[in-house]
Every structure is written in C-alpha cells, then in structure tokens.
Amino acid sequence: MLGRISAQSYSFDQSFYTYNSEKFALCFFRDPDVVSSLKKMEASVWVPLDKPVVSVDVEVVPCTKVSMELFDPIYSCGILRPSGHVVKCFHDVYPDYDELRQMLQEEDSEHYNVIGREERGEFLFHLFKHLCLGGELCQYEDTIDPYINTTKQVYKDLISVQKDPDTKKMSVVSTVLKVSAHVSQWLSVCSSCSHEKLCVYHES
Q1: Are strands 198-202 and 186-193 parallel, antiparallel or unpaired?
Q2: CB-count exposure of residue 103 (10 Å: 0-12, 13-18, 19+)
Q3: What are the coiled-coil residue ranges (predicted)?
Q4: Ranges of each domain in the chain
Q5: Do 174 and 158 form a contact (C-beta atoms < 8 A)?
Q6: What's the rounded Cα separation, in Å, for the pair 158 and 140?
C-alpha cells in the first residue's frame, strides 16, 4: 500500500442529515479547500482534481459493527489452518491463489456463504476485502493476522463510536457514504463522516 493509498481529513462543523447526502457530497467536491488539496491517482502518481465534479451518485454503506466478530466464521470453515495460515487452492488464472481470496470474490466458492449477505454489506467487511485483495502490486500474506489487525486499526481510525448511558452498549455514530463523482472520468471514493470529522480515502 506504500504510496498507493492515501487518507485526507476535512473538518465539517454543521449539521449533517443522511437524507441530504447527495447535496453534501456534491458541495464537498466543489468546496475550494477540497478542490485545492484533494488528490486522485493516475498512472501511479497522485495528482490534483483538475476537472470540476458535475454530479455525484451516493450510497449509504451500513456501518454498525463495533467488534471483529463478523470474521469469526472464517476461522472454522476450512479457509484457515489451525496455525492461522491461509489454505492455498488451484486457480486457472492466478497461480498463487488461496481460499480467502476465493471466498471474498467468487459466489460459487464453497465458503462464500460463511459471511452472510448482510454482513458483506458492512463497511468493516468492505475494508477487509479491500486490504486482502489489494492492487496490481499486492504481495499477499500467508496468514490471516496481518489482514485482521490492519482492518481493525484502519476501521478504528475512520469511524467514531459512543456508549449509551443507559445500556452501556457501544454503537457507531459515523455515517459512511460510497460516492461516485462524475468528472471527465470516474472517481470512486468512500467517505466516513460524522459531526466531528470527515475522512476520505481514494481507490485507484
């Protein structure tokens, strides 16, 4: 990920309403401070947004998880060995393939349903999948721990939680938006926003 993933943080000190997400996202990409500092990757080089955003498509991404229990089924379904090593498997296209990546991508995988459809929609799962699959230069890990630990750390940095004073239960108070911003080409970003902060990370 070195040099190929970036996190930029912007402050938003007004009220945010989920039903107004599309207007919020469009205003964000048109804000002078954002335009002057937000970057995208082209040909492995970070460059400024050189063309104005004309429209956006916004999708609210579920973000309710406050623990890593979502991934518990992975440890007992045959994807991992008792040591935590990921089980390798044969693939027609990718010579160095494993059961974890197959479960993440292929619906006909025998392990695909160990993570339910609702859980697969969670921001935590999307983050884990992004880190596991990586990009064109990704060197895959042999064990599950680096993926789980990195996902946990990044997730904690991106979202905010609070404790209910009555039930003492923790809950996520951030809203996660998947935004497709239309310029001269597609730019896809995921935004995590709460009343306290706005965090954006780019996917090349």
Answers
A1: antiparallel
A2: buried
A3: none
A4: 18-63+172-202, 69-158
A5: yes
A6: 24
